[in-house]
Amino acid sequence: MLASYLESIKYVGHMFPVAFVRIVLGYQYLSLVIQRVQSGYLEHAYISDRFKLSLEAEPVSGIYYELLKNIVQPYWLMATYVLIMLEVVIGVSYILGFGVRVASLLGMILSMHIYLYFDFVSSPGEFYVFYIHLLFFMLGAGRCLGLDYYFYKSRRGLLW
């Protein structure tokens, strides 16, 4: 496995800048999780409060609204744990380069969800994180400096 890790630099070395961005983004996801846990994110209903604020600014309708209203708002602690665990999975996957396509798909869904429905974004430039996840998904960014190259060599498929 270590040999294929080093071999990935030789054969997929042209993706080294993408691998660097992948590792930095994974580190940012993990540092965000640590920052949230240390700031007491699990002790206050931030998700429920943001949902109420977004409803006052612009009403949301449809099945997604019913899901947020009936499940996420009353059970905010469970939703917070799910959010934090998704960010941990994405961060660890990006750093190790293992399962990057699945993690980038989760990252695309998560970034669209946060951007469109919770209005966490402070600037339009933060929407480009969605495009970074899309780029990782299309390129298979875990193949360079990642464990995906080992599985790509032995088990060809869309996951690697």
How would you briefly describe this protein structure?
By secondary structure, the protein is mostly helical. 71% of the residues lie in helices and 0% in strands.
Output the keywords:
160 residues; mainly alpha
Structural overview:
By secondary structure, the protein is an all-alpha fold. The chain has one domain (2-154). The protein is 71% helix and 0% strand. It contains 8 helices and no strands. It starts with a helix and ends in a 6-residue tail after the last helix.
Helix/strand structural class = mainly alpha
Measured as a percent range, the helix fraction is over 70%
User: Cα-atom Rg, whole angstroms?
Assistant: 18 Å
- How many domains? The number is 1
Average per-residue pLDDT, rounded, comes to 78
Order of helices and strands: HHHHHHHH
The count of DSSP E runs of length 2 or more, i.e. the number of strands, is 0
Shape: elongated
| Main beta-sheet annotation | none
- Report the β-strand fraction as a percent range: under 5%
Low-confidence stretches: none
The number of helical elements comes to 8
Distance between the termini: 15 Å
